[in-house]
Amino acid sequence: MLTEEGAILLEKKARTAFGQGKYSESVMIFEQIKKELPSFSGNLRVHLFLGLTYRRLGKLNQAINPLRYYAEALSHTPEGSRALLTLAHTYTDLKKYHEALWAAEEIISSKSRAPEVVQLEAVIVKGRAWLGLKKVKRSKRAIDSFFIKTKNRSDLKKLKAQAYLLSMDMTLYRCEKYPKSQKRAEIYIREQIKERGECLLEALVQYIYAVEQGNPNLLLQGGQRFKSSFQKYNYLCKSPPKPPGKRTAKQLRQYREEISKILKTDCDQVRNRGIALLVPWYLKVPRDFQVYLDQASYALEKGRNHEE
Q: What CA–CA distance (Å, rounded) separates 46 from 49?
């Protein structure tokens, strides 16, 4: 039977394993303590570390209950609010956006004693949850409120990087709507693809601002999202949607030839403007962060070179 003294030693061993990145070993020991000695004086810590360890293992569903247990036991305390924020991120990662909104609102509410930085990050989580629910206007209101609250704050760079990446994601969501299916007449196709290019340049600026703030854990994924969206745009540039109505093979071939020439000019202009936006920032951001600019540059250059 596990005793208090034995549990203390096991907890120390589990936390050491956690610190060394041995998460599978760590989680087994924490689970043993929780199961064999529910009355352990460090029971709350065990639940917190279980939640954190399951997150590190990518077992997000299993992280929810221990994180919620800890957050509810220490509700309206700084420690509890931090755990609730981790829970909110976990819900968002699992695309459980309504639950993420609940957790974020709990942190933001007036009765919360969450530290300022935790409350501000909860606003970003709220915006991301609204975007996940495709409520773009509500997402924008949340992120706008974040930027108002953090104006002229130079001590919140990592949070600002999150916020700019969320702004980028909102813009990319809008970009995906071009060309609109109901406007695929020939007269609109060029205009719509051009709109998508302008939209992507707006997203690029937001990504650059995120890189300037710096948050390596998020920038890699953010850059990949931008690159993926721009690759879809590159595809549209060389393979535009078919025009409506029935066309003969000759008419389709003529249409392809004509619009391809027009789109090559338009799309090259977008790519060149994007590269022009990026170049000065290579001199402004730390060398370690230039790799994140490279992700965007790669998408732009690949599209241009492919066309050539």
A: 5
pTM: 0.89
Let me know the angle formed at the C-alpha of 262 by 261 and 268, rounded to the nearest 5 degrees.
Answer: 90
C-alpha 236, offset from chain centre:
25
- Taking alpha carbons only, the member of 63, 36, 32 closest to residue 50 is 63
As a whole number, mean pLDDT of residues 118-128 equals 97
For residue 305, the model assigns a pLDDT of: 55
Report, in angstroms and rounded to the nearest whole number, the Rg of the chain calculated over CA atoms.
24
For the stretch 27-36, what's the b/e string if a residue is b when 16 or more beta carbons lie within 10 angstroms of its beta carbon?
bebbbebbee
For 85, other C-beta atoms within 10 Å of its C-beta total 24
- In single-letter form, the type of residue at position 134 comes to K
Token look-up 């730390």 returns 286
Contact 18, 48 (CB under 8 A): no
Q: How far apart are CA 294 and CA 282, in angstroms?
A: 9
**Cβ(207)–Cβ(161) below 8 Å:** no
> Angle 283-121-54 (CA atoms, 0-180°, nearest 5)?
100
Could you report how far apart the first and last alpha carbons of the chain are, in Å? Answer: 73
Helix, strand, coil abundance in the chain, percent, nearest 5 = 80, 0, 20
Mean pLDDT of the residues in the chain? 91
How crowded is the C-beta side of 284, counted as CA atoms within 13 Å?
13
What is the pLDDT at residue 308?
47
Rounded Cα–Cα distance for residues 87 and 48 (Å): 10
Cα–Cα distance, 118 to 120 (Å, whole number): 5
Cβ neighbours of residue 248 closer than 8 Å, sequence gap 6 or more: none
